[in-house]
Specification:
Largest sheet: 4 strands, mixed
CATH architecture of the largest domain: 3-Layer(aba) Sandwich
Distance between the termini: 25 Å
Strand content: 5-15%
Helix content: 25-40%
Strand order of the largest sheet: 1-9-8-5
Order of helices and strands: HHHEHEHEHEHEEEEEHHHEEHHEH
Number of helices: 13
Number of domains: 2
Number of strands: 12
Structural class: alpha/beta
CATH topology of the largest domain: Aspartate Aminotransferase, domain 2
CATH class of the largest domain: Alpha Beta
Length: about 375
């Protein structure tokens, strides 16, 4: 068995190559590169695909979060509650608007924000709650939304890794004031560079977000708000328009691969040594990553690296231990579940084109390490 990559973008690209190149050529021939009809068409198509009322195409997933915070007028002196365990943009966007990230520990089984800890984190300065749908699994939204509604605080869903995931049969991005998605190339639906999306059911917020996306301008050179340049390139929209119709099939393939992993790990007798991702009955996991937990994570990683098995640590340092957030005043040991996840978690290949033989090679390599280290 040859090397098994963590992600194989070439395998996804190859069957779509001619269609993608034709879409790129269409944009280049039009010489309309910023916004325009290509982006507008993508917004209509992705809103219909996701079943969400308003979709605002933006320049990245990070900018989606920034735009949502700005649209809710969150600024210096405000506080935003979020998980301490996520990709940096979640807390980084809060800091970028001058607000204070108020961090909360995770549920150990899901890696997501623990709803039971949210209410105690609310203060008179709390202006938003940002649950993260990490690795493709929705956070437990109902109790979070209930606490938020009772306190009159909006929810911003960080759905950067969870496009197509559902919670109680509703799509993520449909519960908060805003949903924020990323089309970074490694995502389940990836662009040919940076791109993102903001969703909302509120037409007023949708209009405000569209204004802020283009420097608060409407009409040209008349600025009602101080916004920024969060515009999506037409080239990215064109590529995404080709790929988006395939998302349901790609998602189902990832789910099939996840089911197969569960069987392979069980048959190899590894469930006493490795913890597999959970999928609560009320949620649909889309497996942007397949993250396992192992007490000897670092040893396992070294072994997989030597065997040519792709893997990645998501994430090695929680926000409360990041040097740039030292002034927030958190201490080591304050969020034990996140810290333990940071030391135990490891992503293994799950992409939709992954073959049965490749999955068997991954599990065999893990079993070899367990046998040697037992």
């Amino acid at each position: 068995m040859s090397r098994v990559p963590l992600l194989d973008l070439q395998a996804q690209y190859a069957p779509l190559r001619h269609e993608i190149l034709a879409a790129v050529t269409r944009v280049i021939d039009s010489q309309r590169f910023i916004m325009g009809p290509e982006v507008a068409a993508f917004e209509d198509e992705i809103a219909a695909l996701l079943g969400l009322p308003h979709a605002i195409a933006v320049s990245s997933g990070t900018d989606a979060l920034l735009l949502a915070l700005m649209a809710l007028d969150i600024k210096a002196g405000d506080e935003v509650i979020t998980s301490t365990y996520s990709f940096f943009a979640t807390a980084g966007a809060v800091a970028r608007v001058g607000a204070r990230p108020v961090l909360v520990d995770i549920e150990p089984a899901t890696f997501n924000l623990d709803p039971a800890l949210v209410e105690a984190a609310i203060t008179p300065r709390t202006r938003a709650i940002v649950p993260v749908h990490l690795f493709g699994l929705s956070a437990d939204l109902e109790p979070i939304a209930s606490v938020a509604a009772g306190a009159g605080i909006p929810v911003i869903e960080d759905a950067a890794q969870a496009i197509g995931a559902t919670y109680r049969s509703r799509p993520v991005g449909d519960f908060g004031a805003f949903g924020c998605f990323s089309f970074f190339p490694s995502k389940n639906l990836g662009a040919a560079g940076d791109a993102g999306l903001v969703t909302t059911a509120d037409p007023h917020l949708a209009h405000r977000a569209r204004l802020l996306r283009t420097h608060g301008m409407e009409p040209k050179y008349y600025h009602h708000l101080v916004g920024a340049n969060f515009r999506m390139d037409a080239l990215q929209a064109a590529v995404l328009r080709v790929k988006a119709p395939h998302l349901p099939a790609w998602t189902e393939a990832r789910r099939v691969n996840a089911t197969r992993y569960r069987r392979l790990f069980r048959d190899a007798g590894l469930l006493e040594h490795v913890t597999l991702p959970t999928e609560p009955a009320d949620r649909r996991h889309i497996y942007n990553q397949f993250v396992i937990r192992c007490a000897d994570r670092d040893g396992l990683k070294r072994h997989l690296d030597l065997q040519g098995i792709g893997n990645e640590i998501y994430y090695a340092v929680p926000f409360h231990l990041q040097p740039c957030f030292r002034d927030l005043g958190y201490r080591a040991g304050e969020f034990p579940h996140a810290e333990r996840a940071a030391h135990e978690s490891l992503a293994i290949p799950i992409y939709s084109e992954l073959s049965v033989e490749q999955q068997q090679a991954v599990v065999t390599a893990i079993a070899e390490h367990v046998q040697v280290s037992a």
